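Complex 326.
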Amino acid sequence: MRRKMHPQLGVSSENATPEYLQYLKQMNVTHCFVMFSNEQSDYEHVNRILERIRAAGLTVDDAGNSFLYKHLSIHLGLPDRDKWIERYNTLNRILGNAGVPVGYIGNSRVSHTGYFADPFTHGALGRTVHMEEILKRPPVIDPPVSEEQLWESFRYLLQAALPAAKETGMRLALHPSDPPYPAYEGYPSLIHNSDCFRRAIRMADEIEPGILGLKFCCGCWLEGGPTFGDILADLREFVRAGRVLTVHFRNVSSPLPDFTETLAEDGYFDMMKIMRVLVQEGYDGAIYPDHVFRTSPETGGDLAAFAYAMGYLKGLMNAACSETGD
Ligand SMILES: [Mn+2]
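Predicted structure with manganese (II) ion bound:
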């Protein structure tokens, strides 16, 4: 039997409790990522939390601090960016030295119109995007940043981040812009189609080859639809190139301009096709259900929503493996 991909769920520096770690164990989830808060991103806290998670039998695939790696000063090249890049790199060094093989890099903007119950959510609240509404929003920055300025800021970040990651053998995973629309809220999106990913990899490889990889977010690919790329062909290409560091396994109601996130089983794409590509290509990295509905705390809330999504993901994974005799 070939080594399978491993489903993962998230642990935060706040919820790394014995109860939560046991919940993961009881679902036979053996891998996780860890999100650190600003208060707990120093050497002592990071190592203490990683030890606690590992002592519970979990393997940490990837980790970071979303305040730092998503910092707008870094992405838009604002005057104070060096301070934030330094803090970001310090955390990556701590994580890399602690044996975390994958950190995060840049760009992961996430916007939405709101969380609503609609025919796609079965009464739960689902993340919804109406592009027309988002495009009416005022710019968050003045003067606006051009696409070339954004890419130059990304190159500047890569020049600092890649050598630091290389020191500890860490790789860095880049997520698409969400929604993957070329520009909104006053600045462009770095990754709004699969060619943007190819450009980012070329740029990174000129600085330090092989370190930049992808959070292959099926959700973003499907939000963009054909405008983003051919999800199955792109997935095959990036897996074969060894660039997929984690997969976000998520479905939506339709491509842009309007979508709601759905259960994996009833969005517009057949998620089994994605699973088959991953199994056929021998993908052995992390796979994560990504976003879930907001449901009532009285009936389990996030824990129930993630348990359902994880069970479904594992069912498809095992079905795809049996098809290929794995
Ligand atoms: Mn994602």
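Residues 301-323 form the longest helix (23 residues).
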